[in-house]
């Protein structure tokens, strides 16, 4: 138990981090109980590293040194350690100093920092990770600059500081390099941190997917069981590495299980193990983890199920303490079809065809379904590069696998089935980066409030509305679909066809009715179908070839849908499917070569129709063997127009997002924003006499003042506690006026009589006041106010809220029923760029009302976009602002008027984002702890 004189231990500074080589380490504050660990660590450091640290021979630590390096106040003196397997592998500390370099306390804002890394762990990025964390600790304690003295020969440590991305000053004094640098995050330091994060997390997944040696723990001695099935899958796939079976009940003298070297314990395997597949009862898994950690295993796939959430947390903590990462528990396994790996460590002995699609699922059943769906699309169309089924995903998540696929040269398209988001803000960031080069298609289960991820999942159900999640995924360039079938449909198209240049679709086929269904489906999906080309039922494969070539050459088309039904007279015979597929592929070759007819007339091999200028999809009804024949030429086939057009429409939207993302917009600077005055106002609000804030509304005056500092004017209101006060207010404001109640149950409810508009005279105001109080209640209850009328326009609503899972979200919609009843609201993550603001205004279904619908005068959308940008800046600059509600905002032909505003504030997020997951992506890199 801590005594009153001991400083409080900052538990929120603890973190698991991924190092450069993909292994993990635990970072935590050093405590007095670490004395023996520190001494042991120091004994394992080379004399040269000790010399670099202390600038002199320093063979051992004295008792005084040990006390100094293990006793900290966690304010002016802080020490952190990186730990693997219960041992220190590196330490860092800072000591606050004054301008003369002597020990100091606040308000001194400078500290000296020093590192020591064990020689056998140098080069793993430990120092860089510790610098990120010690800098975050120092910022929390009021330190703004670090100083460091480094010997010139200690080039590795000089590089740690210079590569961190902080602005720094460098000089050479008394034989040492003297560095001074600010530790506030900069654009460059964040870019450096995220690049390191990407490389480390990608490497941690790559180690799991490309092992040289695999141990299957729990492989039964007789056929059957999960472990034995994985052995069979590895053998059937032709795994290029070596496999060992582990069964603790193995008979004395038995050396093999199913022709695979067998052992009683992973400790008995005579070579280093890269990956262990664990298929033992849940109660035995912790012991297996300890054995694997002691043996130096790099990663685990845990097939075992029936873990409670506390047991899962302990499992992850235990694995990470040894530097290992976990797929699972309750995982289905891993697949890597690369020729030099050929890994199938799953419960399915059938390995999918090699291809360019990466697949991640949280459900084994869904994984099986998607793999089967891709397999049915035929060789060349539905091949897979890698597959990860993470089960409860207590550790490795979709974010980690996205990091791997981001620069994986073997993956062109990413398909994901997700049931929960551990760090949605990070997913949004990673997806936006990856989607700029590779399409990401996501189907999400447990979308609604009444549903939740299956029991045992590490991440609890989120409360973010599904419409908000969908909008934010679209903002990041993610293709959001609703079903597994749509996931496969879109994935196959994106993996085999180029992106369309626009929404114009050419349609041709030998059945006019099928073409018309396709035409209607295009209209329903927001595409622009061109006039149908009906080839009639007597069309031959050569007719299809000529028509497709002509449509591809037509500058008025961006994509083509070919529809086909079986030949009624059977004239093409059993080889008709092959002939049709070859004819279409030939047309594609001719288009790519810039030829409108002729050609070699020869048979095309698989992939001969490489990179056509426009995407082509085929819809056919019951033409036997056509799917397989088309797949040989990388042409996707669909059994219904709606499915083909649905996939094509997603490709069109994604292609447009890619073009827009090339110029992502900017966050404008406004000269009239007074951030300092806004901060001073919020500081006054948080004074002790206001009480401890959780979520507190600002008064009307405070709200108007705060918004005014960001250039947002709120139409003044004057209280009207009685009819006389109402008349005086109207006289002061000038007629016409509005009389409104501010009672919470009547706010924004003109349908209930709580708002009376266009009152043009004192007599009219007297009558309106009397009727309102007669119908709705006494003035004390209604709290009436008088407000000058705004120019006529469109009533809109602008809101910003801090979602506990994803951070600050800016929302826009029309005021009243369109947003409240129909849910016609658009959302964007803060900070919002000028392009985001323009899209926000235009993305609601009722947007035509703003642009002159039915002959009305268009409103000033430029002013509306500026308002959105200013509100975004407010919540971005001040994390304590947790809600801004501007409704109604009347947008006129010129300008706009904010008629009502409400702001709520709360305590800013805790350091490191521990209490607010939305900020978990903004601090030093760390693995999530659920």
Give a description of the structure.
- The two termini are 26 Å apart.
- The strands form 6 sheets. The protein has an 8-stranded mixed sheet with strand order 1-2-3-4-5-6-8-7, sandwiched between helices.
- Helix 20 packs antiparallel against helix 21 (700-708).
- By secondary structure, it is an alpha/beta fold.
- Helices cover 34% and strands 22% of the residues.
Q: Which SSEs are present, and which pair or pack?
A:
Layout: E1 15-18, E2 24-29, H1 35-43, H2 47-54, H3 63-70, E3 77-84, E4 87-97, E5 110-117, H4 126-140, E6 145-150, H5 155-162, E7 168-173, E8 176-182, H6 187-209, E9 213-217, H7 226-237, E10 242-246, E11 256-257, E12 260-263, E13 275-278, H8 285-295, E14 299-302, H9 309-321, E15 325-327, E16 333-336, E17 343-346, E18 354-361, H10 364-376, E19 384-389, H11 398-406, E20 413-418, H12 424-435, E21 440-444, H13 466-475, E22 479-481, H14 484-496, E23 504-509, H15 512-524, E24 528-529, E25 533-534, H16 541-553, E26 559-564, H17 576-592, E27 616-620, H18 626-631, E28 637-638, H19 641-661, H20 675-685, E29 696-697, H21 700-708, E30 717-719, H22 723-733, E31 737-741, E32 755-759, H23 762-776, H24 779-782, E33 784-788, E34 794-803, E35 807-814, H25 817-820, E36 825-829, H26 834-842, H27 861-877, E37 881-891, E38 896-898, E39 901-905
Parallel strand pairs: 5-6, 9-10, 9-13, 10-12, 13-14, 14-15, 18-19, 18-20, 20-21, 21-22, 23-24, 23-25, 23-26, 26-27, 27-28
Antiparallel strand pairs: 1-2, 2-3, 3-4, 4-5, 6-8, 7-8, 11-12, 16-17, 16-19, 29-39, 30-33, 31-32, 31-33, 34-35, 34-37, 35-36, 37-38, 37-39
Helix pairs in contact: 6-11, 8-9, 10-14, 11-12, 14-19, 15-19, 16-17, 20-21, 22-23, 26-27
């Amino acid at each position: 138990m801590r005594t009153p004189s001991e400083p409080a231990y900052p538990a929120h500074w603890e973190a698991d981090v991924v190092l450069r080589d993909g292994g993990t380490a635990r970072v935590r504050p050093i405590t007095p109980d670490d004395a023996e660990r520190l001494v042991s660590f120091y004994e394992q450091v080379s004399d040269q590293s000790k010399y670099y640290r202390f600038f002199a021979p320093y063979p051992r630590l004295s008792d005084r040194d040990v006390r100094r390096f293990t006793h900290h106040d966690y304010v002016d003196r802080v020490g952190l350690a990186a730990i693997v397997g219960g041992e220190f592998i590196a330490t860092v500390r800072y000591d606050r100093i004054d301008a003369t370099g002597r020990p100091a306390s606040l308000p001194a804002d400078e500290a000296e920092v020093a590192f020591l890394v064990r020689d056998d762990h140098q080069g793993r990025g430990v120092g860089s990770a510790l610098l990120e964390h010690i800098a975050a600790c120092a910022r929390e304690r009021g330190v703004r600059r670090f100083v460091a003295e480094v010997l010139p020969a200690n080039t590795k440590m000089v590089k740690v500081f210079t590569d961190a991305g902080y602005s720094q000053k460098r000089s050479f004094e008394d034989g040492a390099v003297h560095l001074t640098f600010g530790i506030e995050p900069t654009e460059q330091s964040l870019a450096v941190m995220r690049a390191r994060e990407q490389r480390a997390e990608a490497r941690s997944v790559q180690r799991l997917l490309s092992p040289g040696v695999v141990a299957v723990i729990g492989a039964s001695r007789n056929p059957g069981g999960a472990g034995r099935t994985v052995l069979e899958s590895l053998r059937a796939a032709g795994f290029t590495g070596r496999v060992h079976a582990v069964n603790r009940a193995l008979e004395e003298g038995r050396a093999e299980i199913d022709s695979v070297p067998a052992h009683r314990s992973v400790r008995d395997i005579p070579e280093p193990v890269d990956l262990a597949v664990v298929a033992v009862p849940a109660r035995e898994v912790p012991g297996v983890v300890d054995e694997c950690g002691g043996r130096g295993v790099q990663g685990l796939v845990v097939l075992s199920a029936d873990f409670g959430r506390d047991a899962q947390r302990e499992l992850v903590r235990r694995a990470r303490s040894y530097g290992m990462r976990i797929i699972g528990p309750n995982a289905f396994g891993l697949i890597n079809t690369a020729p030099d790996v050929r890994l199938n460590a799953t419960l399915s002995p059938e390995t999918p065809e090699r291809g360019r699609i990466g697949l991640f699922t949280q459900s084994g059943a869904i994984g099986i379904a998607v793999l089967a769906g891709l397999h049915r699309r035929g060789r060349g169309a539905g091949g897979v590069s890698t597959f990860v089924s993470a089960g409860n995903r207590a550790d490795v998540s979709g974010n980690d696998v996205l990091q791997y696929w981001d620069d994986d040269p073997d993956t062109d398209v990413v398909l994901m089935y997700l049931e929960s988001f551990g760090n949605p803000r990070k997913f949004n960031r990673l997806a936006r980066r990856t989607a700029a080069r590779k399409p990401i298609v996501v189907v999400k289960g447990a979308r609604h409030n009444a549903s939740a991820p299956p029991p045992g999942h590490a991440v609890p159900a989120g409360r973010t509305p599904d419409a908000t999640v969908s909008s934010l995924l679209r903002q990041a360039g993610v293709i959001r679909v609703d079903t597994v079938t749509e996931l496969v449909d879109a994935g196959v198209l994106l993996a085999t066809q180029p992106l369309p240049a626009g929404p114009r679709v050419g349609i041709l086929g030998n059945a006019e009715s099928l073409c018309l269904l396709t035409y209607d489906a295009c209209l329903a999906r927001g595409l622009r179908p061109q006039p149908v080309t009906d080839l009639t039922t007597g069309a031959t494969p050569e007719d299809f070839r000529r028509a497709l070539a002509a449509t591809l050459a037509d500058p008025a088309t961006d994509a083509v849908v070919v529809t086909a039904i079986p030949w009624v007279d059977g004239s093409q015979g059993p080889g008709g499917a092959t002939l049709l597929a070859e004819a279409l592929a030939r047309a594609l070759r001719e288009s790519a070569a810039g030829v409108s007819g002729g050609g070699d007339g020869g048979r095309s091999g698989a992939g001969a129709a490489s990179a056509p200028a426009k995407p082509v999809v085929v819809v056919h009804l019951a033409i036997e063997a056509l799917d397989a024949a088309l797949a040989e030429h990388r042409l996707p086939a669909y059994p219904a127009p709606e499915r083909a057009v649905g996939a094509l429409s997603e490709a069109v939207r994604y292609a447009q997002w890619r073009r827009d993302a090339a110029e992502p917009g900017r966050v404008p600077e406004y000269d009239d924003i007074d951030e300092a005055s806004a901060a001073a106002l919020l500081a006054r609000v948080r004074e002790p006499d206001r009480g401890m804030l959780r979520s507190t509304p600002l008064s009307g005056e405070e709200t108007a003042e705060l918004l005014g500092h960001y250039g947002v004017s709120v139409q003044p209101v004057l209280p009207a506690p009685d009819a006389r006060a109402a008349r005086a207010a109207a006289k002061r404001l000038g007629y016409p006026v509005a009389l409104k109640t501010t009672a919470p149950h009547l706010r924004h409810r003109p349908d209930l009589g709580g708002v009376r508009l266009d009152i043009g005279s004192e007599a009219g105001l007297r009558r309106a006041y009397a009727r309102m109080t007669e119908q709705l209640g006494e003035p004390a209850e209604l709290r009436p106010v008088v407000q000058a009328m705004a120019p006529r326009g469109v009533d809109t609503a602008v809101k910003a809220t801090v979602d506990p899972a994803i951070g600050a979200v800016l929302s826009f919609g029309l005021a009243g029923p369109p947003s409240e009843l129909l849910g016609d609201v658009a959302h964007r993550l803060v900070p919002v760029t000028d392009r985001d603001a323009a899209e926000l205004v235009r993305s609601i279904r009722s947007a035509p009302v703003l642009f002159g619908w039915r002959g009305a005068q268009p409103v000033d959308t430029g002013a509306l976009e500026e308002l959105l940008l200013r509100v975004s800046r407010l919540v971005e600059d001040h994390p304590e602002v947790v809600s801004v509600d501007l409704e109604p905002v009347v947008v006129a032909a010129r300008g706009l008027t904010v008629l009502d505003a409400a702001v709520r504030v709360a305590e800013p997020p805790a350091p490191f984002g521990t209490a607010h997951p939305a900020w978990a992506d903004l601090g030093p890199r760390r693995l999530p702890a659920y």
